[in-house]
Design brief:
With 398 residues, this protein is mainly α. Helix 1 packs parallel to helix 4 and helix 15 packs across helix 17.
Length: 398
């Protein structure tokens, strides 16, 4: 399409896509990456992100980020970065919107509990589960299973954190080190896990970093888990806060926090753009395959900003993720996931009919995967309600 003539030579072009696993006629009005984005947005898995939380459980407040609002924030940052770097905004947006689809309820605590329960059966990994969801578990279309997304979209989701293996592998016999959902799909479609993904995928990944670091500041302050004075001990924050106070000395605290966060986002994205342009210039790519063949990421923070962001992450880990209130709730969340998994594994007939048909009896590998898929798709509130129905003697079983 006409807009693609404005893209950089190393950007992903929709008319050069490696296509879909199941052939479909192209749309007259949308590019292949626009269709992928729309399929993601219209999926039931995407809608469920509304009640899957980042750090807080859904009932703890209406103003905290959920997986859905986080994904929207990531997509906004990804589009802005892609536009400035002359990359394909539609592919970057699709990847940003889909990157968290595989998360189970209760954030990383829920994933840790589900992965521990699944260790005898291949484990559970949210990135691999994202691939499993969009290629197998979602089934809204009559002509194929999954969403039938383009190769480039699936590649970016699989390699959200970079290459997964050091050398090319036999996709028909993938190594056991790969997580289940990804390993199964590779037998159908080789995603070249030894290379870096496209620049658009790298943009979506770093936009994820920018978004969650900054919205965790906002949510942590709103929840009273730490003070602005304590946060100001982080050099990156202190510098931005000084700029806010110099320009707006008498603003309310909530506005002060918002001004701080927007400046931090701006400084991080400006750094990414400056450093990434230099990395791309040094690499001198002429195609997207040159980006994939590089021995390092080309979309990233400068070393100085990365060091500053690491200090911020350490602060958030100590003062937010390890806060006793958060740990108390995540402990409860882990127990809910453990209880549900244990019960459904021993009594798979309690599963809803669709999942009960897949199960092959108590404590089998097939039942374990069905239970993991079922629990992994739950929202926070569904998991809590299901737990109450199954374990509270006074709760209605319906």
């Amino acid at each position: 399409m006409a807009m693609e003539t404005l893209l950089a030579p190393w950007a992903s072009k929709s008319n050069e896509s490696r296509g879909r696993l199941i052939f479909e006629p192209e749309s007259a009005t949308r590019t292949v990456f626009q269709r992928d984005r729309d399929r993601i947005i219209h999926s039931s898995t995407f809608r469920r992100l509304k009640h899957k939380t980042q750090v807080f459980v859904y009932h703890e407040g209406d103003h905290y980020r959920t997986r859905l609002t986080h994904s929207i924030e990531v997509s906004q940052i990804a589009r802005a970065l892609a536009r400035s770097l002359r990359l394909n905004e539609d592919l970057a947006e699709a990847l940003a919107l889909a990157h968290d689809l595989g998360h189970p309820p209760f954030g990383h605590a829920g994933e840790a509990a589900l992965d521990r329960a699944m260790q005898p059966y291949g484990g559970f990994d949210h990135n691999a589960q994202t691939i499993r969801l969009v290629t197998a578990l979602e089934h809204p279309y009559a002509g194929f299973t999954g969403l039938n997304l383009c190769w480039e979209t699936l590649e970016g989701l699989a390699k959200h954190n970079g290459p997964l293996v050091e050398a090319p592998i036999d996709s028909q016999n993938p190594p056991d080190s790969l997580a289940f959902g990804l390993k199964e799909y590779l037998r159908l479609n080789d995603l070249e896990l030894h290379t870096w993904p496209s620049a658009e995928a790298q943009v979506a990944a770093i936009a994820d970093d920018v978004a969650y670091n900054n919205h965790d500041i906002d949510d942590g302050l709103r929840a009273g888990l730490f003070s602005l004075e304590a946060l100001a001990e982080v050099p990156l924050v202190q510098d931005a806060l000084d700029a806010v106070d110099a320009k707006f000395p008498d603003i309310p605290q909530d506005v002060r926090i918002h001004e701080l966060v927007r400046r931090l986002i701006g400084r991080m994205t400006d750094d990414i753009l400056t450093h990434s342009r230099q990395l791309i210039a040094d690499l001198d790519p002429v195609s997207v395959d040159d980006i994939r063949a590089a021995d390092h990421a080309v979309i990233c923070f400068s070393p100085a900003m990365k060091a500053d962001v690491d200090v911020l992450r350490n602060f958030l880990f100590t003062n937010m993720y390890r806060h006793r209130f958060v740990r108390r709730m995540t402990g409860k969340a882990k127990r809910v996931v453990h209880d549900l998994f244990t019960l459904y594994m021993s009594e798979p007939e309690l599963l809803p009919p669709f999942w009960a048909k897949i199960a092959t009896g108590p404590e089998t590998t097939e039942t374990a995967r069905a239970v993991a898929d079922f629990i992994g798709g739950m929202t926070d509130r569904f998991a809590l309600r299901d737990h109450e129905k199954l374990f509270s003697i006074s709760a209605s079983p319906k």
